[in-house]
Write a structure and sequence with these properties.
The protein contains seven helices and nine strands. The protein is α+β, with helices and mostly antiparallel strands. The protein has two domains: 2-105, no CATH class; 126-343. α1 runs antiparallel to α2 and α2 (25-43) runs antiparallel to α4.
Length: 344
């Protein structure tokens, strides 16, 4: 029956140069045939028992007409006013079932948009809580103004650089298909270096000394944040706050003689010495670093994905409890997650 209706529809469309604007003769023909088929089914108890076949035929024809006509208001008009309302009352349960089936089957079953099919049955559980490992490396830029002293003030440091890396564990909870909350705990190491040259007059010429300050820290980094997918893609923006606790602080101070070559130290390296009694302002043991990142998720396996990101950390507190020293973080990282909890 469906093949006959499709052929008649094509014949009507080909005969009419403007089927949509001319009253849609193709619709008239199809609807008359559907009415005849409906009346025939009402006369026969046996046909009523096979109600599903008639409905699917009508449903498929309506779907077909949707793609082969270009006037949606005209199609709705013919379906509403030309089709017997009793047909929909009789088939209400089937209509409702199909609507729910289509709605559910077209809903994403994974948090990040990956097509993870765990079961042929719908609805099927999909992971929303993921746990895994993470690692990152970075560059740090340091700027500020703080004094460096050995009994008396020797110099003032302004700009420096350094590096950082961390490894740890992390978890992500996808509250919806586009938003996720995450947390991570990691071990981190940072290194910051400053140097500055000072000139002092002598009897014959100028004495040029270079002061170096190197700080190494071992930290525990606790991070919380939110992740937002960008335009239904696997790219995401990430906002987080890191709380860093320094459990090891190792400063190293050195002094180098740059010129003149005839002046040197009496012991050890003639042009370099460690300044054991030197000091800088106290290092803050706890610091807060807000971060903004751009990430991308890609599938590794069923229920497993990896996330790569680049980001920047913005200083809101000075590294030292006295003076002014701000550290900017620029980093890149990788996380690998595995689903650990699923729900329907």
């Amino acid at each position: 029956m469906l093949n006959i209706l499709m052929k008649m529809l094509f014949m009507q469309v080909q005969e009419s140069p403007e089927p949509i604007q001319q009253g849609i003769p193709a619709f008239d023909t199809v609807l008359k045939i559907l009415k005849i088929e409906e009346c025939h089914s009402e006369r026969s108890e046996e046909s009523r028992n096979r109600i599903g076949t008639g409905f699917f035929t009508s449903f498929r024809m309506t779907f077909f007409l949707t793609f082969h006509t270009y006037s949606f208001p005209g199609m709705v008009k013919y379906i509403i006013f030309e089709t017997n309302a009793t047909f929909f009352k009789t088939h209400f349960r089937i209509v409702l079932f199909l609507f729910l089936f289509i709605f559910v089957s077209n809903t994403r079953i994974s948090a990040q948009g990956f097509d993870w099919q765990y079961s042929a049955r719908m609805p099927a559980p999909s992971p929303i809580l993921f746990a895994g490992v993470k690692a990152s490396i970075g560059y740090t830029y340091n700027n500020g103004s703080f004094n460096f002293a050995e009994d008396v003030i020797c110099t003032n440091f302004n700009n420096g650089d350094g590096s950082s890396w961390n490894v740890g564990i992390a978890a992500e909870y996808w509250h919806s298909g586009n938003y996720a909350f995450f947390a991570g705990l990691s071990y981190a190491r940072t290194n910051s270096s400053f140097k500055n040259a000072e000139s002092y007059p002598t009897l014959t010429n100028q004495l040029l000394l270079e002061y170096n300050f190197n700080l190494q820290q071992q930290l525990l980094d606790l991070e919380f944040g939110i992740k937002r997918r960008i335009l239904e893609t696997h790219f995401s923006t990430i906002f987080s706050l890191s709380t860093q606790y320094s459990f090891t602080i190792s400063p190293v101070y050195t002094q180098n003689i740059l010129s003149p070559p005839e002046i040197h130290f009496s012991t050890g390296n003639p042009y370099k010495r460690n300044m054991q009694s030197s000091k800088t302002p106290p290092i803050r043991q706890v610091n807060l670093i807000p971060q903004i990142k751009l990430g991308y998720d890609f599938q590794v396996g069923l229920g497993t994905y990896s996330s790569i990101w680049i980001g920047a950390g913005l200083p809101i507190l000075s590294v030292t409890s006295e003076g002014d020293w701000h550290r900017w973080y620029f980093s890149a990282g990788l996380c690998i997650y595995k689903g650990v909890f699923s729900k329907y």
